[in-house]
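Journal club prep, shared notes

We agreed each person brings one worked example of a sequence with its structure written out as tokens. Mine is Rho GTPase-activating protein 8. I'm keeping it raw so we can talk through how to read the token line rather than staring at a rendered picture. Sequence first:
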Amino acid sequence: KPVNFDLYQDVHVPAVILKTFLRELPEPLLTFRVYNQVQELLNVESSLRATRCKQIVESLPEHNFIVVKFLICFLHMVSQESIINKMSASNLACVFGVNLVWPRHGSISLNALTPINIFTEILIEHFNTVFGSRCPPAQVTP
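Then the structure, token by token:
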């Protein structure tokens, strides 16, 4: 549904809408198949994690990849303004990570949050490495 943001005086409304959309998908944007791969990220040497994240996202179905790239490009741009908005890649990962990937059965355990947050933080912080240097055309700012 279209939302007239002028009716709301809360800057958090767009983020709530986006997180709700992601949470209500029948399958997570990063797919159920990727969940275990994300959980295994901590077993990868830290200098190789961005490359492993790139491999994981490139294995997504095409439509999922396009949406993930678009979203992470946006979050990367938000993180570039963290001095003003206080939303670093790490903070954004904590807010959005659990809405991007979850297990097929059951809920996410506290132990599972760390690799999800690290994975999401790498996607945001190392956007250019993981996705290439260009944002999707609709995201390019003048």
